[in-house]
Amino acid sequence: MPRLKSMLVFAGWFVLIYGLLITPWPGAKTIYAGYFRCLGKLVFTAPGSQRLLEFQPLDNHSHQWPQNFDTAIILANRDLLDQDGHDQRFMLTVDAWQMGWAPTACLVAFTLATPIPWRRRKRALFWGLLWVHAFILLTLGIFIWNESVRLKLVALTPFWMEVANRLEVLALNPVGPSFFAAALIWMLVTFRRRDLTVKPA
C-alpha cells in the first residue's frame, strides 16, 4: 500500500509539473523557438562548408504549413550555385516547441517528481538536460541529413535511403520517441542500483 501511494504521489506531481511546463504561456513558444534556432545554428552551420544552412523564423502568414510550425531551415549546396550566384534551396519546417521543448519538459517533470534527495535531483537534472539536448540535436540532425540527399550533399544507396526515411518519420513523430527518450534518460541519470532493489518486508 505505501508503494502504491508513493507511485500515485509521483504521478500526480509529474502531471502537474509537466502540465505547467508544456502549457504555451504567452511568449514562451517564441522564446524557445529563438533558442532552438540559435542552438541549431551553433551546432550545424560551418562557414565555408559545402552545405549552406540557415535557421530562420517561419513566415507562415499564408498558412502554408501547420499553425504550430515556427522554424524554417534553409538548406542549399554551395557547389550547385549557378553563374549568377543563385542556388537551389530547400526549406524544411519544424515545430521547435514539439521537437525540443516537449522532451525537455518531460525530462524535467520526471526528475522533479522523483522522491529522492534534492541534491540527487539537481545532479540528475543537470546530466539529464545535457542528454536530452543530445537527443534533440540527433533528431534535428536526422531531419537535415535525410533532406540533404536532394541537394547531393549526401549520397545514399536505396537501402540507406529507406533507412533514412524511416528514421525521419520516427524522429518527427510528435509524441512517442520524445516521451520514450525523456523517460529513458530520466531513468539512466536518476536511479542507482540500490534504488531498484526490493527490500524484504
Largest sheet: 3 strands, antiparallel
Specify the helix fraction band: 55-70%
| Total number of strands | 3
- Biggest sheet strand order reads 1-2-3
What is the rounded distance between the termini? 12 Å
Instruction: Work out the helix count.
Output: 6
Estimate the mean pLDDT confidence: 83
Gross morphology: elongated
Strand content: 5-15%
Rg from Cα: 20 Å
Structural class: mainly alpha
Order of helices and strands: HHEEEHHHH
Please, how many domains? 1
Low-confidence stretches: none
Polypeptide structure, described:
This protein is mainly alpha-helical and 201 residues long. The chain has one domain. The chain contains six helices and three strands; from the N terminus they run H-H-E-E-E-H-H-H-H. It has helices at 2-22, 28-44, 96-113, 118-147, 158-171, 176-190, and strands at 51-57, 71-77, 89-94. The protein has a three-stranded antiparallel β-sheet with strand order 1-2-3. The chain is elongated, with a radius of gyration of 20 Å. The two termini are 12 Å apart.
